[in-house]
Each structure stands twice: as C-alpha cells, then as structure tokens.
C-alpha cells in the first residue's frame, strides 16, 4: 500500500488530502495527453531527419558538379596548344624565359577568365616557385580581368602549392581552401586548384586556379525544406566556419571572422567531434537541434587517376540543422492547450479540497500553536476547541498536560536556584585553590609542562620561558618532540619512556647555548593516570647548570687540596733526608780512594738524587705556588722569550717551530715569569711527545699563532683560589670564583699546534688532573700548573687532539684592561673541560 508519510514526511494532513483529490482528478487526463504528445514528437522528428538528409545530399551533388566544371576548365587550359609548346620548350631550354609565348598564353587565360567569371586568379609558376604568369581582376572592377605585368609577378617559392601537388601525376588536380590578399590588401576567400605541368622528363611548373568561394557557396545555396528555423554551415577540419547561412553578410569576408565563429565553441565536444569526423551521420541527442552532416569534398574521386586527387589539406564538412522549436511548433501548440485544460481541472480539485479539509485542519492548527506556546515556557496557556469530536477530547488532555508541566516547572526553578548557589561557592573555592597552586608553580625555578597523551603541549608554569627559551604562546598545542628535540634541547625523550614504563623517568641533557655556553637540563616525566589509564604527562624541566658546575668545581677542588697536601708532606719529609744523602754521596764521590767502577756507581746515585730533588721542587711549587705579580706586558714578547728558551731542545730533536704573531695585540696586565714558564712547559710537552711516540715519517712541526678575536660563544671555567693562610701552611682553602668570558668580548688567543702522535680521547679529559701522566719519568704536574697560571690571568685553556694527527691547545686571555686588572687579583685557578674553542672565536 502506498504510504505518503514515508514518501513525503514533511507534508501536512491538508496537503496530503489535497494531493489525493488532485491526483484522482488529473491523472487519467494526463496519461492520455502525454501519450498523444510523445507520438507527435516522434513523427515530427523522423520527418525532420529525412528532410535534412535530403538537403545535405543535394548540397554534395551540387558541389560535385561544380568541381567537375572546374576540372574541365583546368584540363582545357592544360591541353591548349600554346601551353603544350611552352612546356616542351622549357623542357629543352629551362633557362630561357619565352616572354612571347607567355604573352600568348596570358591572352588565352584572360579570355578564359572573362568567359567564366568565377576565377579570382589564373596563375602559372615555374619549378623554382617563381611566378611566370598571373591573370586577376583589375583594380577597376568595370575593366574586368587583367594580365599582371612582369614587374608585379612574385619571385618567392610557392611552397604551399608544391606541398599540395607533390604526389600528383599528370592531369591530376589538388585543391584546398585559402585566403589571398587583393590589391587593396583585403583578404579574399578562395579555393585553390593546382595541377602539375609535367613534361616528358621533368616538371617545369604548376598551373593554379583560385576560384571565388562565393561562387561555390552560391551553388550550395538553394531551396531547402527548412527555410525558417534551419541553417546550412560549411566548417573546416579544425572547426572554423567557412560559411554560415544565418551569419552571411558579405561573400568576400566569409573567412575573416573564423576565429570568433567555431563549431567547437558553439556545440558540445562530442557533437563537434562527430561533425568533423569526415563521415556522414545525424545528431538528435544532447543539443536543442537536429543535425545532418557529411563531408563536402570526397577524399578520393571515383573517376580514378585522371580525376581530382585527395589533396585537400584542410577537410571541409557541411551540415544542416533545424531547432526543435521549428519542428515541434504544432506539438507545442497542442501541449499548451492540453496544459490549460489540465490546470483548470487541477484548480477545481484543489478548491474543493481546501473547502473540505478546512473543517478539521483549523482545530489541529490551534493545537499546534498551543504546543508552541507551552514549548517556549508559558505553561499557563490553555486551549479552547469546540468540535464535539475526538479533537476536542485531545485538546482537554492537552490542557491537563500543561497544568502538570506548570507544577513541575515551579519545583525545578526552586532546585535550580539552590544548585546555582552551591556551584558558585564551589567555583569560588576552586578558583582560590587554583590561584594558590599557580602561584606556587610560577615561583618554582623549575618549568612544569603538562602534555596530553599524544605529547602535545597544553600549559606550562611561568619558568617555562626562562628555562627552555620558548614562549608558551608559541608552542601551545605543538608536539613537544618537534619543539625540544629539533634543536638539541631534549636529547632523550623521557615522556615517551615514562608512558612506556608507566613510571617516573628522569634524564640530564648537556646542551650548548649561544648566549651562556654549556647548559645542563634535567628532565623528569611523571605519567598522570585516570582510572588506571595514562591521560597526560607532567614534565618537570630544571636548569641544573650551576649545580653541575659547582659539583665539577668541588671535585677539582678536592683533587687539588689532596694533591697540595700530599705534595707538602712529600716535600717536607723527603727534602732534608735527600740533602743529607746528597752531601754524603758527594763526599764519597770526591774521595781519592775510590776506583773507577765505584765512582761511576756514585755518579749514577747522585743523578738519581738530583732527579728526586727536581721532583720535590715541582711538588713544592705546586703545593705553595709563588704569588702572582701583574704588570703591563707585551704577550708576543713573552712568547718570543719562551721560544728562545726551548730553541736548543728544538734543534737537538730536529723540530721545526713556526710562529705567526699578531702585531695588533695590545699591552696586557700579565705575570711574565709565570706565563713564560707555562708556555715553556707546553713547548717541552710537545717536544717530549715527538720523542715518546711521534710519527716516524714526515716533518716534526710546532706552530705558534696569536690572534685578536671576539668570542662567538660564552666560555666558562672555575678558578680555584688559595688563601694567604694556606701558603703559610695552615692548609685551609676556600672556594674559587667562576671565570666567564662573555660572548662578543675581545680576547687574545694563543694557538699551539704540534704534528705529534695526539692524545687518546679517553684520557684527554684527565691531562689537567694533578699527577696524571703518560710519561715514564713525568710527575703529572706540568699541565695543571699551566692551567693554574692561565686561570690566574682570567683566561681558559682548552685542547683538541686527533690520535695520529697531532694536538692543538688554545689559550684565551681577555684583552679588556678593566677585566685584566680584576683578574690579576685572583690566584691559583683550576679546572676546565678538554674541548676545543676554535669554533667559538673569530678574528676581530
């Protein structure tokens, strides 16, 4: 059974009844009328197609006759006695012009053109493309045709015509549509016919006849079945109109507007493709027209080898069309009459339906309005319906429902007021607690970052920008791995590991900051769970750089304290004993009773005693270094003195030392003796490195370079300070100060490079520790004393070494006078990492 409620769910009761009344009144009438209209449409379409096909075939037949006449004319001209004689002469003597013969042939062409009056030009060109003869209309149309003088003939190669006839045999003709410029430089549409002039052994030229397109199109014009509402169109293979019966204005300008008129613009692509396909056919679907089409010129003449050849370069099609409006006029007249009667029946049915349905739709509308009023909250509204049927009973039940809703609404309002007061108080309490918690978090130096389950940043405490160098507004909602891990701030993802392990994970990353240098960042990830499921991650980020530096400083301080105390004990306990032993051995060595072997043994013993004294002296110098005395000195002069001191050692070991000292270095506050001693110590270490394990091949080189530079990165170190009481022997020490060479300050850089064996990476960090040495007879105090001296000048010393390729030490000293004076007050500096600063400095 048909269910209108399912098909049309938006229709009202009245609309459904009206649809039923209207359907019963007009459905039978509609079926009869539609059947009659469809039958008439089919008949009219078949008649139109038949008439269109006849018109197109008539046009093709007229065109064939026109082409046969042109073919006959060209054969008459070609086979004339004068032209045959001219071809024969040219074949034997191609270099002669034969002007007399051309004049006779021209007169014959002129007489022929005047009699036919359809030719725009009759031309003859030679084998080189040069024009031999041309007959065309005179400038004054009253004078008819003229033979063009020799001076006006063209001398350019007619490549178009040679391409047109290249495959033709004798008496064959090729043709193609074209446009030529007349004497007034206006374009004239023509059809060019070309016939090769073939002699016995070669082709002496081409016979060309340009026919007015208007003469061909006038042949096409004629009586058609659809003079009103129909059109005939000639179209080229590329879609441009050659002729259009509705747009014809001037025969001589038919091709002038072909860029604007195009079958591909006027018709859908599939229709245009069918018209230009080169086949015959009809089109009745997809457009508001009926079209019959066919190719105008056959590609091959059934006449055989002596007919017109398939030389048409641009195919031409003809089609005739008639609009549906012209064909279906009578059908539409009948349809309009039927529609008027149909509307009258429909109006009558709807009027009667409205009158009948009004009796029960009016109370239903009252019920609907009452429901809308009550839905808006006006529960005091009541309905008044008096129909004495089921609708009146429904209205009574509706009023009872409204009264019940009014009672419940009063109760809900009372509970709502109570609940709103409770929510307000609780919200105030939560806001205060949140403010307290936020204040606590914002005053904690660590950054608290809340991430969601996908590691996207949600919020952060106030310390976030200071610790991470990012603003929360710029990174909120982004993946923390894209924010922190891309620039090396976070090298190990503790959040991912915390989610994987469901526990707290911490990690310390070492990073480099262009502004403050090396930084140590502690990351702690705490997974936040709800009902046993991880919903978010709390990451605590703390900058522990100061703590790390202090730990490293304390470790170095303890090492130095232990080394100093041990050195003092050794020096105190052994020095007096060594002096006594040395005196006894010296006395024994000077005795005259010793034989040669005994004296030699005593010499060896004395050498050992002297070596032990030097070791004890180094221990005493390390334990109780002499005080610094700073004066204004030239750094390059101190370096020259140190090089002069080690020059004998360099010569002995065949080591080449080169220097490149910057003459622009300013005078600096320096302790020349201590700095010279430190430089000599470094030169001697390099010389000993060649002796202990240097390369066996290649030159031994040491280079010394000084530069005036500006730091590209902040460099830090802790300087250990020894108090005056410590030098007196009390052994009490105090913490040193941090050396900070800020980015951008001017410094003096000393670069000492050797080509020795280099230093193993695993011991590079230990070479500045006291008593650490890789030499058989070394004390391990040389480089620690070098660092102490450099630190006392407010500078730092670092190194870079590649095993097997050599080692480079960098000594960086501040050039600023005020800074140098302040540094001169500090003594006994220690500690630095063995890392290169060559990448941190740049020439000033």
Give the amount of beta strand, in percent: 15-25%
CATH class of the largest domain: Alpha Beta
- Main beta-sheet strand count, sense and barrel state: 6 strands, antiparallel
**Total helix count?**
23
Structural category: alpha+beta
**How many domains is the backbone divided into?**
4
Query: Per CATH, which architecture of the largest domain?
Result: 2-Layer Sandwich
Query: Distance between termini?
Result: 98 Å
Strand order of the largest sheet: 3-2-1-6-5-4
Number of strands: 26
- Shape summary: flat
Rg, please?
A: 57 Å
The CATH topology of the largest domain is Beta-Lactamase
Which parts are unreliable, with pLDDT below 50 for 5 consecutive residues or more?
A: 301-313, 721-735, 817-844
CATH superfamily of the largest domain: PAS domain
């Amino acid at each position: 059974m048909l269910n209108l409620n399912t098909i049309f769910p938006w229709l009202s009761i009245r609309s459904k009844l009206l649809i039923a009344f209207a359907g019963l009144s007009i459905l039978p009438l509609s079926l009869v009328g539609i059947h009659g209209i469809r039958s008439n449409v089919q008949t009219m379409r078949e008649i139109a197609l038949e008439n269109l096909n006849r018109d197109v075939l008539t046009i093709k037949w007229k065109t064939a006759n026109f082409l046969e006449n042109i073919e006959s004319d060209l054969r008459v001209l070609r086979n004339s006695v004068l032209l045959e004689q001219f071809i024969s002469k040219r074949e034997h003597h191609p270099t002669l012009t034969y002007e007399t013969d051309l004049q006779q042939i021209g007169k014959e062409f002129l007489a022929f053109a005047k009699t036919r009056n359809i030719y725009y030009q009759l031309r003859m060109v030679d084998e080189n493309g040069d024009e031999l003869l041309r007959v065309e209309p005179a400038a004054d149309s009253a004078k008819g045709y003229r033979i063009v003088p020799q001076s006006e003939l063209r001398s350019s190669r007619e490549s178009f015509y040679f391409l047109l006839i290249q495959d033709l045999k004798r008496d064959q003709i090729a043709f193609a549509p074209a446009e030529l410029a007349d004497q007034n430089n206006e374009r004239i549409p023509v059809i060019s016919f070309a016939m090769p002039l073939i002699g016995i052994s070669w082709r002496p030229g081409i016979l060309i006849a340009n026919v007015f397109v208007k003469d061909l199109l006038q042949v096409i014009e004629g009586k058609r079945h659809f003079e009103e509402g129909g059109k005939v169109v000639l179209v080229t293979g590329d879609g441009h109109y050659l002729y259009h019966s509705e747009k014809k204005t001037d025969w001589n300008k038919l091709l002038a507007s072909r860029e604007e008129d195009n079958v591909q613009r006027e018709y859908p692509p599939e229709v245009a493709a069918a018209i230009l396909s080169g086949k015959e056919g009809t089109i009745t679907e997809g457009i508001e027209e009926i079209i019959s089409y066919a190719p105008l010129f056959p590609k091959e003449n059934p006449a055989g080898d002596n007919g017109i050849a398939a030389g048409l370069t641009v195919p031409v099609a003809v089609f005739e069309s008639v609009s549906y409006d012209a064909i279906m006029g009578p059908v539409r007249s009948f349809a309009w009459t039927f529609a008027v009667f149909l509307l009258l029946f429909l109006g009558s049915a709807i009027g009667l339906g409205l009158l009948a349905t009004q009796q029960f739709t009016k109370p239903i509308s009252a019920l609907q309005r009452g429901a809308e009023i009550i839905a808006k909250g006006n529960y005091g509204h009541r309905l008044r319906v008096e129909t004495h049927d089921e609708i009146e009973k429904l209205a009574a039940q509706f009023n009872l429902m409204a009264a019940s809703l009014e009672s419940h609404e009063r109760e809900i309002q009372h509970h709502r007021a109570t609940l709103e007061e409770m929510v307000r108080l609780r919200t105030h309490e939560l806001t205060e607690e949140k403010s307290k918690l936020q204040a606590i978090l914002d005053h904690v130096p660590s950054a608290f970052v809340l991430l969601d389950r996908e590691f996207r940043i949600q919020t952060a405490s106030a310390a976030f920008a200071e610790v991470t160098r990012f603003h929360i507004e710029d990174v909120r909602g982004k993946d923390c791995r894209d924010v922190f891990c891309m620039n090396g701030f976070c090298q190990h993802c503790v959040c991912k590991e915390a989610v994987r392990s469901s526990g707290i994970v911490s990690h310390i990353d070492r990073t480099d900051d262009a502004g403050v240098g090396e930084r140590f960042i502690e990351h702690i990830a705490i997974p936040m769970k709800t009902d046993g499921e991880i919903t978010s991650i709390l990451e605590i980020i703390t900058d522990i750089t100061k703590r790390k530096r202090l730990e490293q400083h304390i470790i170095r301080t303890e090492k130095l304290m232990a080394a100093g105390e041990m050195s003092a004990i050794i020096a105190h306990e052994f020095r007096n004993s060594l002096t006594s032993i040395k005196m006894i051995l010296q006395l024994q060595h000077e005795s005259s009773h010793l034989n040669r072997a005994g004296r030699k043994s005593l010499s060896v013993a004395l050498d050992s005693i002297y070596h032990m004294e030097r070791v004890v002296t180094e221990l005493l110098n390390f334990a109780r270094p002499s005080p610094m005395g700073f004066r204004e000195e030239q750094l390059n002069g101190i370096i020259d003195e140190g090089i002069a001191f080690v020059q004998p050692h360099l010569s002995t070991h065949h080591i080449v030392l080169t220097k490149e000292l910057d003459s622009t270095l300013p005078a600096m506050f320096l302790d020349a003796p201590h700095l010279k001693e430190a430089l000599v110590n470094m030169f001697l270490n390099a010389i000993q490195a060649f002796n202990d394990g240097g390369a066996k091949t290649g030159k031994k080189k040491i280079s010394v370079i000084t530069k005036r530079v500006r730091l590209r990165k902040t460099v830090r170190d802790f300087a250990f300070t020894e108090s005056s009481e410590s030098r007196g022997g009390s052994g009490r020490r105090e913490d040193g100060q941090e050396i900070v060479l800020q980015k951008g300050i001017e410094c003096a850089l000393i670069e000492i490079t050797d080509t020795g064996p280099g230093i193993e990476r695993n011991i590079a960090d230990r070479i500045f520790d006291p008593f650490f040495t890789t030499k058989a007879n070394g004390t391990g105090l040389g480089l620690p004393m070098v660092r102490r001296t450099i630190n006392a000048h407010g500078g730092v010393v670092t190194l870079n070494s590649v095993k097997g390729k050599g080692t480079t030490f960098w000594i960086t000293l501040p050039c600023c006078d005020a800074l140098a004076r302040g540094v001169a007050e500090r003594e006994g500096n220690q500690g630095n990492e063995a890392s290169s600063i060559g990448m941190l400095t740049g020439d000033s």
